[in-house]
């Protein structure tokens, strides 16, 4: 699926088809890399950024330039090499951070400064030790500073979902007045429910003057396993940018997974009138690359890119799959870059799948031989976790040897 026109304003986010274009903002190299143990080398970051750019990611958040010289260099080099994507650098609402982020993205054909500040009472009281008025003043000053450096400025209200709506609207209004072109309302601690998250976007977009001058963005963490549901709800509430990471890596329980949001939008096009510009056949490659670069394994049952996502072991499912792929698969493996569905041979497998496996292995058996080999296979599968092709070939040899005796 491709819809490569790149919207640069809320109006062009409408797209040319009846589907609204949803921008994919990948933060694997920033929020993803922030989780314990996921640090990547410069070369690994460059390889990930190159693949994300080729895959059609609209905005790549390449790092947090003030965090270290290494992070600055990575963002600057990714900015220099970028072809299609906007390259973003993160900055706290601190003048030195913003200046450093501006310098890092300067050489990108399209650079963005992404600046953020906390807005919730708990963060204001305990982390920032600032009053609401002081934070509003900081937003006005820092967004304007960023806007003096680049055309494309994203402002995020950290912990937006635990911020009273009146104050959140005041902050958003201030950021838009100061020149923010994207407004991100993150569920920083993964606390919101889908209906709450959607309602927050609807309320802010309705109440803030000139809200249509900015693109609204979702950024969801997965502490309650709701990151994808919340992201979709935010889009239904009017957001047109989704922030996500490959394999869902990120702080604590992670961020919304890029591959999941993209395939949900593609697979449920019947009820979700949106489109992304992602080449979905590259999703599995991206997952493997990020897993390799971060040393984070992908859980076997991970949606879309897990090893079992297109594998079937139970006899009933295998039988259905042999009759029609749509019986137990809602998307094709090819659509996400997996060569084919696999029917895994195990104790739950049935005759139909076993016969197909024998044919794939080039083994043709008479009916009486088949029954014997099938019985041997079932007995073996009860004893052994994985039954490999070699095991099945050995069972056939055993059958032949016994029938010769
Ligand atoms: O989760 C969060 O609030 C963030 C911000 C920096 C956008 O990652
Ligand atoms: Zn985050």
From TrEMBL:
Its cofactor is Mn(2+). Mn(2+) binds at residues 31, 219, 221, 255. The keyword Metal-binding applies. The keyword Manganese applies. It catalyses: 3-methyl-2-oxobutanoate + acetyl-CoA + H2O = (2S)-2-isopropylmalate + CoA + H(+). Pathway: Amino-acid biosynthesis; L-leucine biosynthesis; L-leucine from 3-methyl-2-oxobutanoate: step 1/4. Keywords: Amino-acid biosynthesis, Branched-chain amino acid biosynthesis, Cytoplasm, Leucine biosynthesis, Manganese, Metal-binding, Transferase. Its EC number is 2.3.3.13. It comes from the Bacteria. Residues 22-284 form the Pyruvate carboxyltransferase domain. It is an enzyme of class 2 (transferase). Belongs to the alpha-IPM synthase/homocitrate synthase family. LeuA type 1 subfamily. Homodimer. Catalyzes the condensation of the acetyl group of acetyl-CoA with 3-methyl-2-oxobutanoate (2-ketoisovalerate) to form 3-carboxy-3-hydroxy-4-methylpentanoate (2-isopropylmalate). This is 2-isopropylmalate synthase. The gene is leuA.
């Amino acid at each position: 699926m491709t819809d490569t026109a790149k919207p640069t304003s809320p109006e062009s986010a409408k797209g040319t088809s009846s589907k609204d274009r949803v921008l994919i903002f990948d933060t694997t190299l920033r929020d993803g890399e922030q989780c314990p143990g996921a640090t990547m080398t410069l070369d690994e970051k460059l390889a990930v950024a190159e693949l994300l750019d080729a895959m059609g990611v609209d905005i790549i958040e390449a790092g947090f330039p003030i965090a270290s010289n290494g992070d600055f260099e990575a963002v600057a080099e990714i900015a220099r090499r970028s072809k299609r994507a906007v390259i973003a650098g993160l900055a706290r609402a601190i003048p030195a951070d913003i200046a450093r982020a501006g310098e890092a993205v300067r050489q990108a054909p399209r650079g963005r400064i992404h600046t953020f500040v906390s807005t919730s009472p708990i963060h204001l009281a305990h982390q920032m030790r600032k009053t609401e008025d002081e934070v509003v003043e900081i937003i006005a000053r820092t967004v304007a500073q960023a806007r003096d450096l680049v055309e494309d400025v994203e402002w995020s209200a950290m912990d937006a979902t635990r911020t009273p709506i009146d104050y959140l609207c005041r902050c958003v209004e201030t950021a838009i007045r100061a020149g923010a072109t994207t407004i991100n309302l993150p569920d920083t601690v993964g606390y919101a429910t889908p209906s709450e998250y959607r309602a927050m976007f609807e309320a802010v977009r309705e109440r803030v003057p000139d809200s249509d001058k900015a693109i609204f963005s979702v950024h969801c963490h997965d502490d309650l396993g709701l990151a994808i549901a919340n992201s979709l709800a935010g889009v239904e509430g009017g957001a047109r940018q989704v922030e996500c990471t490959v394999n869902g890596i990120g702080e604590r329980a992670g961020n919304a997974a890029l591959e999941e949001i993209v395939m949900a939008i593609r697979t449920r096009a019947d009820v979700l009138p949106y489109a992304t510009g992602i080449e979905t056949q590259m999703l599995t490659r991206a997952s493997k690359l990020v897993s390799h670069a971060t040393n984070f394994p992908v859980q076997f049952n991970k949606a879309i890119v897990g090893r079992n996502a297109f594998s079937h072991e139970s006899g009933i499912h295998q039988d259905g799959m042999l009759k029609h792929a749509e019986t137990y698969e809602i998307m094709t493996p090819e659509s996400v870059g997996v060569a084919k569905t696999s029917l895994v041979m195990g104790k739950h497998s049935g005759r139909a799948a076993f016969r197909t496996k024998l044919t794939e292995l080039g083994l043709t058996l008479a009916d009486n031989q088949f029954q014997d080999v099938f019985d041997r296979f079932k007995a073996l599968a009860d004893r052994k976790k994985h039954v490999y092709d070699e095991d099945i070939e050995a069972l056939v040899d055993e059958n032949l040897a016994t029938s010769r005796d």
